[in-house]
Specification:
With 152 residues, the chain is mainly α. It has eight helices and no strands. Residues 1-5 have low confidence and may be disordered.
């Protein structure tokens, strides 16, 4: 696809600084995203939001995501079960982070997306890079428990 609907006002240098290796593969990854989800409301919402984000916005997004990852690792290191209150709280925080910055995500959608965390090696690598091996399954279990807690 060539529509490039999901764009950023940032310079290439800022993209590399904020997105890391994603910036190097931006065109190919955006093609894949558009092909897979380009006709969804979530994609349209995300494209609209992302097209306005500045370097400072991405810094906030990254700080928030890093805090979530740090907490996942801390909980796992402490031996917290993914069904614990603390684990469900971090799952809820992750859901709210996605809803705030990218697209509205209800609990059912969060459970569905968590399948990607476990099944897609790129999603798994993104989660486990800054946490530890097994974090994808742990987070998925926390997401499922959190959704059940909310009656989903």
């Amino acid at each position: 696809m060539n529509s490039r609907r999901m764009q950023s006002p940032m310079s290439d240098a800022d993209k590399r600084e904020q997105w890391g290796t994603f910036a190097d593969d931006e065109k190919e990854l955006l093609d894949e995203v558009e092909a897979r989800w380009g006709d969804t409301a979530a994609y349209a919402e995300s494209a609209k939001k992302v097209s306005t984000y500045t370097k400072e916005d991405w810094e906030q997004i990254n700080v928030s995501n890093t805090a979530i990852e740090r907490r996942i690792q801390e909980l796992m290191d402490a031996g917290a079960e993914p069904t614990s209150e603390e684990a469900m709280e971090i799952a809820e925080e992750q859901r709210c982070h996605i809803s705030r910055w990218f697209y509205t995500m209800d609990h059912t959608f969060h459970v569905q997306k968590s399948d990607l965390y476990v099944q897609d090696p790129r999603f798994r690598a993104g989660i486990e890079k800054n946490t530890r091996p097994g974090a994808a399954e742990w987070l998925q279990a926390a997401i499922v428990a959190n959704a059940a807690r909310w009656g989903c």
